[in-house]
Predict the 3D structure of the following.
Amino acid sequence: MNFLGFGQSAEIDIVFDGAENRKTAEVKGEDGKIEQMLLYYDGETVSGKVNVTLKKPGSKLEHHGIKIEFIGQIELFYDRGNHHEFKCLAKALARPGDLIQNNSYPFEFPNVEKQFEVYAGSNVRLRYFLRATIVRRISDITKEVDIAVHTLCSYPDVNNPIKMEVGIEDCLHIEFEYNKSKYHLQDTIIGKIYFLLVRIKIKHMEIAIIKRESTGTGPNMFTENENITKFEIMDGAPVKGESIPIRVFLAGYNLTPTMREINKKFSVKYFLNLVLMDTEDRRYFKQQEITLWRKADIPRYHAHSQQQAAIAGHNTHPQHAPAHLVSGPPAPISATPAVPVNDSNAAGTVPSESKMGLFTRESPNQEFSQQSQDSLPTSPMTPPSMSIERGIGDGAAATSTSPVLLSTTPPPLPVAATIINATTTHETDPAAEQKTAEVEDLLESNEQAENDIEDKPLVVAPVTTDFLDDA
């Protein structure tokens, strides 16, 4: 054939990047032999080189292009003529032309989605492979290399124990319990069997792990059961109230994760089969389905850092709080009425503010308007006072939201404040009585000033309410 020009005049070799440092996995081939394949995970990049070597140095190879494909494929053994491809990525390595010397072509499939795990069963096979092709006029030159793919799962949110009471009416009642319903492939099944009623002669009891493979749909469905392992857990006749412990190590068996409706072609399920045999060789069994999943060996540092960032963001800025309760322009400054500077009881008369909740019945504007009506100012003169700030937390505003309160009387003189203190405390000091006459003259002058002010129009300072939103 080579003499006539129809044979393969070149060889193709596919080399993966980092193959010497990548893990390998054992996968059963089509002929039943175990093969070592490079292990990839979902989302990993597949890259390498395609080496084309001419069999005869100096010869010329005419081709119509060189390409490489990444293919995910399901093969049903009862329908070998049809291969179902659920993943196909192609890249062109060389344009049509002549190949006169050995050459190497790099390739890369970045972040390839591999949603299913490789599987080789009794009636179905799921595989991932790379296919390099030299397209020719009559017969193409191809090379295929399989890879192993494992799908990693997170810890299940709910993993309830399995507990069930089964038996034969008035003859045998047993209660079996397993610690979990979902196990990873390196896990240990722990449970117990408790005999509630025993009226038949039981010879021994055994437990088995069964893999059930279902392929096809409707009338073309085929089911294959395979006993993964079986061992005896009790020998001899039990009595009422006896408890038999169960401990099964899964790491020593060739198991795969549970697969449900993979591309609507096949399913793989696992069952725990409890079998009791009496002295007349009659068998009593009960099957219970369990879920197997593959545990990730790589720590999830990325997920942990995201969780910490979310917690930090929640502490600094409550996401459920409205924007106008956690930020905004500065609010008006609260002012207090003038009080005597030496009166110790006057400080307690200043009304204290209460924190605003995240949700209130009335809008901030309504609350402000009601408070402003209760404290209508009668004088344009407003003494400065210290503002009261709110703390950030529980939805309280970062700035004070109290309205401006205007004083109704002019600020008293320091001497007058001292005499007022003396008169309110009913002191009989002669020096104080002498000063009272002097103060009365000052008060008369102040009253005259008030009468002049009342004739003038009232001017009230505007209040800014831009930072308040309507409810």
